[in-house]
Amino acid sequence: MPEPRRATYRNFRDAHGQLIDAGIVLWFPAPSSFTGENVAEFQGHGSPGALRAVLERCLSLGARLAHPGEFTERAYLNQRIDLAQAEAVADLIGAETIAAARAASRSLTGEFSGLVEAFCEELRTLRVLMEAAIDFPEEDIDVIAEYDVIRRIEETAVRLGEVVRAGRRGQLLREGLRVVLLGVPNVGKSSLLNRLAEADLAIVTDVAGTTRDLVQAQLSIEGVPISIVDTAGIRAGGDAIERLGMGRAVAAAGEADVGLVVVDAREDWRAAVSALREVVAVPERHIVVRNKIDIVGEAPAVHQEDGCTVIGVSALRGEGIDRVRSELLLAGGWDRQGGEGVFMARTRHLEALESARGYLERAARIEGSQADVMTEELGYAERALEAIVGRRVPDDLLGDIFSRFCIGK
Hints:
There is one protein chain. The chain folds into three domains: about 10-65, no CATH class; about 85-175 and about 345-405, tRNA modification GTPase MnmE domain 2 (Four Helix Bundle (Hemerythrin (Met), subunit A), Up-down Bundle), CATH 1.20.120.430; about 175-330, Rossmann fold (3-Layer(aba) Sandwich), CATH 3.40.50. By secondary structure, the chain is α/β, with parallel strands linked by helices. The two termini are about 25 Å apart. It is flat. The strands form two sheets. A seven-stranded mixed beta sheet has the order 5-6-4-7-8-10-9, sandwiched between helices. The protein has a three-stranded antiparallel beta sheet with strand order 1-2-3. The chain is built from 15 helices and ten strands. The longest helix has 27 residues, at about 150-175. Helix 2 packs antiparallel against helix 3, helix 5 (about 110-135) packs antiparallel against helix 7 and helix 13 (about 345-365) runs antiparallel to helix 14.
């Protein structure tokens, strides 16, 4: 047996003693391993044939293939990590940007779980005070006033709101942003795509209807993964292929988080957007990009009008493109605070945080004479938070979470 936690060079042999490969063996006796169980790691040279032979030998000796996420699931079940940390393992593996990887690492090291546990501890303290008020009503002490319970509940709800906002930024890092370019032909959608992607991805010509199919670009803005889709120009008529392209543009608009509605700076942007809405469902969150300001002699600018963000750019010269990038993030939910202090959040985390905050806000509005009702609301809030780190979690949820992991993780 190799010495525990020490890299040891070994030969890997088949059932007949024939050499398969040579590499490193690491031995982690329980409980000092990732899963809390006995774990051995074999590190070979990585050729598919050698790996397959080593794997088959392990299986013949009684091992079995791991289920998706089984190692991380065992670490959770053996209380080596909590559920939020377990999910962060998958998020770190799937991170597409450095910012996303850092956010996942914060969750994996327990930063997010620590916040949740601190909230739970505060709620337990408040519940103890409320239980005292219920159990000892004859005492000449107004517990709620003496310990400023309402103020503490309100402050906790406010702090939960701050965590929700940080979590939404983390969710954006994890899931990314889907953006669609919409407009009539020859307004410069393809030129704008090329500028945003900093690559010649789409063909740019003066011929109307050049773009007939979806052209997609993957990029990162301030660490947020962005998927931008250029679409066929929306207009009446066109040949059969162009009409198919316009149909795909309509479908892409329906799936987008944010729309960039590109119009010619020489045209009335309000009329252009109104006409476009008659053909395609423009995403609720959208930005109007007035392209070709170089022709009308305008400087790049952004302003708010009729509840809409309007940006003047020149895709030809690259003027105003940085403003499009920054406004795009804001429209997608990324605020000025950026990625510092952000943790990787999932939809279930945000729902639990919002639910807990709702219970606290209701508790703060309850009259002091209804201490038992207030205590119940605090208990609901605590249970909602406990579900984030894996207490009071149904088995079907655990199965769903770990089934989405890579095999071997």
